[in-house]
């Protein structure tokens, strides 16, 4: 076809960008390293028709083969500047509902410190698909809005004092029934480079990842160290405060050490962390430089027996609340101060545990929870009606789960991986989600696996085939709200005889902050409070409930919530979206958790 022009006729233009993928296999653990920030103001344009990728703008070809100027439709430096990290929706009023592709671009210089160093470009989160280009060449793409990814850009980068490297990132925030999550969720679909962007310099042979945890039964720390760049040699793990040093040989890019040690165990009451130093030492004649990382790690044991959960061998009741990553001004972008304020609101409620719903929150959360002593449930966005029968959708879900686990498996605060939320009990769903459970266990044998399951509303029973695969059964129930017949809840709890711990991982009702009325008036604080009182009284009678996370700490943005009380927000928060004004139901939970915690 002599008149064929691929950029206007090829509807499968995305395929070439998916040939190189960043995923859990290429993920480098950066927790123990200093990086160089690329945050700041990037040039930005909404690329509504995705022309950068269709027409290969990123190649930046400005002259014809004959050397004559071409009429280019792009203009990097002329485009407005926008903040990174930030969700674009809250940066410009006209982008509030924008859900297509945004182009981000900036330049950076690069002078290597060591010959042979690898340069790694890392994104803590980009919503949803990011295609990354450096100096006109595809570095690769990544799917998933809430997990980190990186590219080794050593071969693409220009070096030297005058060198200018151009990064272009096409961030595509479309919703789709085949993505994870799908096109229909009960939260706002923010887009953009909304978490940190960083450069890391690594030696050619480097420590790629590490996983330290207490051996079952205690008395030992197990340390698995993974090396990148084909490294042979030795690995040394040192925990100075414990006076322990262990060494081992690298085989097949991995060294597994057992370290005799009796660390003080981490718990919410005593969140003890140890400085850990890991060295890679190249062997004998090998002139390669070594590598060193430092991390702060806590050691603890979490287990279940019967219907109880045990932390360090002691029975624990999880006094929690759910929280979304959604701030009225920042959307999904967060920072240390904001995370600490969430933890303050939890602790003032006498809580010890958070459900980070419904996708991986910023990696900073678990680090701060480690320091502050908060237990965490972390979740992957297999939410509602996923395309369970579609293999690529499974691949995406498994990759996002793996990226989350690899990011946070050294964080003592994380005790539960959740593989999904409220998914109908079909055969396709069972094989999809049980495979996720298996994957989670293969990456991490030191935590519990759960999911927020549904109740059999016809037979009034806690019943879900996935429960057989889980350590803990999570249940969401809204009796007294979506189903006004509250009396069903005590019947369900009495009818069920689970052999595992049950967490009520959602319950609640909507209340507009300041809206008053009677305990029967929908949307009032009074009804919400009365509902909480009834829920709590019912839970008190149930022996197998091992913890609670009411829905939800703060009101959050949601395009499905459109009545006069909601105005685009889910109003089930115990605290208003302003994150300041507490509703009466907050104090019901505070009272109850105080009683359990020992009458604070
Ligand atoms: C649920 C969902 C949660 C919703 C909540 C609600 O069951 O898991 O994402 O926001 O109910 O408010 O309806």
Short description:
With 600 residues, the protein is of the alpha/beta class.
What does this structure look like?
With 600 residues, the protein is an alpha/beta fold. Helix content is 17%, strand content 29%. The chain is built from 9 helices and 30 strands. It has helices at residues 6-9, 51-54, 336-347, 363-372, 391-408, 427-443, 488-495, 525-540, 584-597, and strands at 36-37, 40-47, 81-84, 101-110, 118-123, 129-134, 137-143, 149-152, 160-172, 197-202, 206-214, 220-228, 234-239, 244-249, 254-260, 274-281, 291-297, 302-305, 308-311, 314-315, 318-323, 353-356, 375-379, 414-421, 448-453, 473-476, 502-506, 545-548, 556-557, 569-570. Helix 3 packs across helix 4 (363-372) and helix 8 packs parallel to helix 9. The radius of gyration is 25 Å and the shape is globular. It binds (2S,3S,4S,5R)-3,4,5-trihydroxy-6-oxo-oxane-2-carboxylic acid (GCB). (2S,3S,4S,5R)-3,4,5-trihydroxy-6-oxo-oxane-2-carboxylic acid binds at residues 186, 358, 421-422, 476, 506, 551, 570, 572.
Distance between the termini: 78 Å
Give the strand order of the largest sheet, numbering strands 1, 2, ... along the chain.
Answer: 21-22-23-24-25-26-27-28
Total number of strands: 30
**How much is the radius of gyration in Å?**
25 Å
The class by helix and strand makeup works out as alpha/beta
Average per-residue pLDDT, rounded, comes to 96
Largest sheet: 8 strands, parallel, barrel
- Binned, the helix content reads 10-25%
Shape: globular
Bound molecules: (2S,3S,4S,5R)-3,4,5-trihydroxy-6-oxo-oxane-2-carboxylic acid
Strand percentage: 25-35%
Number of H- or I-type helical stretches: 9
Q: Note poorly predicted spans.
A: none
């Amino acid at each position: 076809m002599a008149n064929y022009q691929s950029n206007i006729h090829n509807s499968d233009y995305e395929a070439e960008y998916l040939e190189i993928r960043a995923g859990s296999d290429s993920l480098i653990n950066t927790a123990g390293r200093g990086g160089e920030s690329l945050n700041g103001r990037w040039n930005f344009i909404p690329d509504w028709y995705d022309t950068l990728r269709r027409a290969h703008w990123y190649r930046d070809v400005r002259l014809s083969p004959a050397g004559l100027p071409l009429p280019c439709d792009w203009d990097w430096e002329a485009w407005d500047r926008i903040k990174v990290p930030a969700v674009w929706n809250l940066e410009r009023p006209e982008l509030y509902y924008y859900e297509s592709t945004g182009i981000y671009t900036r330049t950076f210089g690069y002078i290597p410190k060591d010959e042979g160093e690898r340069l790694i470009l890392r994104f803590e989160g980009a919503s949803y698909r990011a295609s990354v280009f450096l100096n006109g060449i595809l570095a690769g793409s990544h799917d998933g809005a809430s997990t980190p990814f990186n590219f080794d850009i050593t071969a693409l980068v220009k070096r030297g004092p005058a060198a200018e490297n151009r990064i272009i990132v096409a961030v595509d925030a479309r919703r789709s029934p085949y993505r994870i999550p799908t096109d229909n969720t009960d939260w706002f679909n923010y887009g953009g480079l909304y978490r940190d962007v960083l450069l890391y310099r690594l030696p050619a042979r480097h420590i790629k990842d590490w996983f330290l945890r207490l051996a079952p039964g205690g008395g030992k720390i197990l340390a698995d160290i993974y090396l990148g760049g084909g490294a042979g040699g030795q690995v040394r793990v040192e925990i100075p405060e414990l006076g322990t040093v262990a060494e081992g040989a690298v085989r097949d890019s991995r060294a597994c050490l057992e370290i005799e040690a009796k660390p003080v165990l981490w718990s919410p009451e005593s969140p003890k962390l140890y400085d850990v130093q890991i060295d890679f030492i190249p062997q004998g004649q090998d002139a390669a430089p070594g590598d060193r990382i430092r991390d702060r790690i806590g050691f603890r044991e979490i287990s279940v027996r019967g219907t109880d959960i045990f932390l360090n061998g002691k029975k624990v009741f999880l006094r929690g609340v759910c929280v979304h990553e959604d701030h009225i001004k920042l959307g999904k972008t967060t920072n240390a101060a904001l995370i600490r304020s969430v933890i303050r609101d939890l602790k003032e409620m006498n809580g010890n545990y958070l459900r980070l719903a419904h996708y991986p929150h910023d990696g900073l959360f678990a680090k701060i929870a480690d320091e502050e002593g908060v237990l965490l449930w972390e979740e992957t966005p297999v939410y509602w009606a996923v395309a369970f029968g579609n293999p690529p959708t499974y691949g995406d879900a498994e990759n996002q789960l793996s990226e989350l686990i690899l990011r946070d498996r050294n964080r003592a605060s994380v005790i539960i991986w959740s593989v999904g939320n409220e998914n109908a009990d079909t055969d396709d769903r069972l094989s999809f989600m049980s495979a996720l459970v298996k994957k989670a266990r293969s990456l991490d044998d030191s935590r519990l696996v759960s999911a927020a399951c549904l109740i059999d509303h016809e037979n009034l029973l806690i019943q879900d085939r996935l429960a057989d695969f889980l350590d803990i059964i999570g249940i969401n129930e809204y009796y007294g709200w979506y189903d006004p017949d509250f009396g069903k809840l005590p019947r369900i709890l009495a009818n069920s005889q689970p052999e595992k711990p049950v967490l009520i991982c959602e319950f609640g009702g909507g209340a507009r902050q300041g809206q008053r009325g009677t305990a029967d008036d929908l949307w009032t604080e009074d009804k919400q409070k009365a509902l909480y009182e009834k829920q709590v009284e019912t839970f008190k009678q149930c022996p197998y409930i091992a913890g609670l996370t009411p829905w939800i700490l703060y009101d959050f943005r949601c395009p499905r919530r459109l009545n006069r009380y909601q105005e685009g927000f889910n109003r089930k928060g115990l605290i208003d979206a302003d994150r300041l004004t507490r509703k009466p139901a907050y104090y019901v939970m505070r009272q109850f958790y105080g009683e359990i915690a020992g009458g604070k």
